[in-house]
């Protein structure tokens, strides 16, 4: 079972389950989860091979969708589902394979397509960190600086570095993420459609979702609607939490 963090109280409304992106964790959602928890229970999960959730050699979307379905089965059998990036693909896979589990679907800045870029370089950079020399995160930050010059991205990656009495360790299964990167960057060919209410959220400064993706999005998710947040990049929930929460609440509160 995936590790979960909860906010709010159970109500007559379906719970909202939130799934993070690659290298993330449930903790990334903590502030947004609290703001979305008025009138509903919010459940943020660590996806497999991330955070405190189980490790597994398969990090494909069919497997991740199965994990999400298992969580939903324990919280009433049906939920609203919100996923960002990799978590958005897992949420889409769940909606396409088990539509009865998904009351409403929110996909944050990702499309059901294969992407040409890879995050393998960031995995390799983290693997090269000499954890034995890391007494604090700043030690790892210095080692990552050449390979990951963006300080904000390094700070995000380092949220998954745990430092305790027994030393430093990544809360990521880096070996499996490296091996499974083609599957993570891709999207499986799944049968069926999801006809339920669907919101695709993106930012004007991100190219993850563009006009060319919409024929496929509409084919798989016929009820899909689109909201684009101005001046926001791929990390829209972190860059603009207020507008993000407003858009999500506006969709869920109809």
Layout of strands and helices, then pairs:
Blueprint: E1 4-7, E2 16-19, H1 30-36, E3 42-45, H2 61-74, E4 79-84, H3 86-97, E5 102-108, H4 120-127, H5 137-144, H6 151-158, E6 161-164, E7 167-170, H7 174-179, H8 181-185, E8 198-203, H9 214-220, E9 224-229, H10 236-239, H11 241-252
Parallel strand pairs: 2-3, 2-4, 4-5, 5-8, 8-9
Antiparallel strand pairs: 1-3, 6-7
Please work out how many helical segments DSSP would assign. Answer: 11
What is the H-and-E element order?
Answer: EEHEHEHEHHHEEHHEHEHH
Total of domains: 2
% residues in beta strands: 15-25%
Overall mean pLDDT stands at 97
Instruction: Going across the biggest sheet, name each strand in turn.
Output: 1-3-2-4-5-8-9
The coarse overall form would be: globular
- What is the CA-CA span between the terminal residues? 32 Å
| Radius of gyration, CA atoms, in whole angstroms | 18 Å
Major sheet size, sense and barrel closure: 7 strands, mixed
Q: What's the CATH H-level homologous superfamily of the largest domain?
A: Alpha/Beta hydrolase fold, catalytic domain
Which spans have pLDDT < 50 for at least 5 consecutive residues?
none
Q: How much helix, percentage-wise, in residues?
A: 25-40%
Total number of strands = 9
The SS-based structural class is: alpha/beta
For the record, the CATH architecture of the largest domain stands as 3-Layer(aba) Sandwich
* CATH C-level name of the largest domain: Alpha Beta
């Amino acid at each position: 079972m995936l590790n979960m963090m909860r906010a709010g109280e159970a109500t007559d409304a379906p719970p909202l389950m939130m799934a993070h992106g690659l290298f993330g964790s449930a903790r990334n959602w903590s502030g947004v989860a609290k703001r979305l928890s008025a009138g509903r229970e919010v459940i943020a999960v660590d996806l497999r091979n991330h955070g405190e959730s189980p490790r597994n050699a398969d990090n494909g979307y069919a497997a991740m969708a199965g994990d999400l379905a298992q969580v939903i089965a324990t919280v009433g059998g049906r939920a609203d589902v919100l996923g960002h990036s990799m978590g958005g693909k897992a949420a889409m896979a769940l909606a396409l394979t088990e539509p009865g589990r998904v009351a409403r679907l929110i996909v944050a800045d990702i499309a059901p397509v294969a992407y040409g870029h890879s995050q393998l370089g960031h995995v390799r950079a983290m693997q090269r960190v000499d954890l034995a020399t890391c007494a604090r995160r700043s030690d790892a930050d210095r080692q990552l600086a050449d390979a990951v010059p963006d300080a904000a991205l390094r700070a995000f990656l380092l949220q998954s570095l745990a430092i305790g009495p027994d030393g430093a360790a990544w809360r990521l299964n880096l070996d499996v993420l490296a091996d499974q990167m083609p599957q993570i960057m891709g999207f499986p060919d799944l049968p069926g459609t999801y006809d339920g209410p669907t919101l695709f959220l993106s930012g004007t400064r991100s190219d993850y979702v563009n006009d060319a993706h919409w024929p496929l999005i509409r084919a798989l998710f016929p009820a899909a609607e689109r909201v684009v947040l101005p001046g926001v990049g791929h990390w829209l929930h972190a860059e603009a939490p207020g507008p993000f929460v407003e858009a999500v609440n506006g969709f869920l509160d109809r």
